[in-house]
Amino acid sequence: MNVITIDLELNKPSRQIIQLGYTINNVKTGHMIFSRCININPFEQLDPFIIELTGITQEQVDSGVSLFEAYEQMKKDITKNQTSPFCIQWGLDHYELRQQLGIPWDEYCFARRGIDVKALYQAYAMSKPQGKTVAGLSKALEVMGLEFAGRQHNALNDAVNTFKAFKALTDKMVKWDEITKVVNRGQ
Fold first, then answer.
1. Low-confidence spans in the chain with pLDDT less than 50
2. Hey, which residues does 4 pair with through a beta bridge?
3. Dihedrals φ, ψ of 38, to 5°?
4. Does the bond joining 42 to the residue before it have cis omega, within 30 degrees of 0?
5. pTM beyond 0.85
6. What is the largest CA-CA distance in the chain?
7. 4-33, pLDDT tens digit by residue?
């Protein structure tokens, strides 16, 4: 099964989306099938703090596409790669995306319930003796013994690392080999 992991970068204080990053991965193998990062023109000036935090420049967003065009491109990639409608994210980015697009749920490309890896990580951490919950993706990966790849607050890098955290957590919960054996025995 293929799944999509998305991440958004937002401007301040408007919270307008300025970058959409996503990866499509095989959930069983963890193999990345496809990735894309799209700069989005918010038709406003970027906050200097956001430029510093993300590395996204005014020139990049000024030459970016509209949010709707970015969404349409993502939908094509989802269809082409036969991707599940259950979006994986760190936090609730797919709700923010739908809200800014103004699309009703019955027309949106994702199911209402996405998979929030941040909540999954928090539950995992709380279940461990002396488990510590953390807010940031980079810190969560560090606690799990994994390294953050790339620059933080880049939508594509954050999507890649969110899937890395998701895969590590689900591998701790589920032994895919055991499930495959049980399923194959039943056939």
1. 187
2. 24
3. -125, 125
4. no
5. yes
6. 59
7. 999 999 999 999 999 999 999 999 899 999
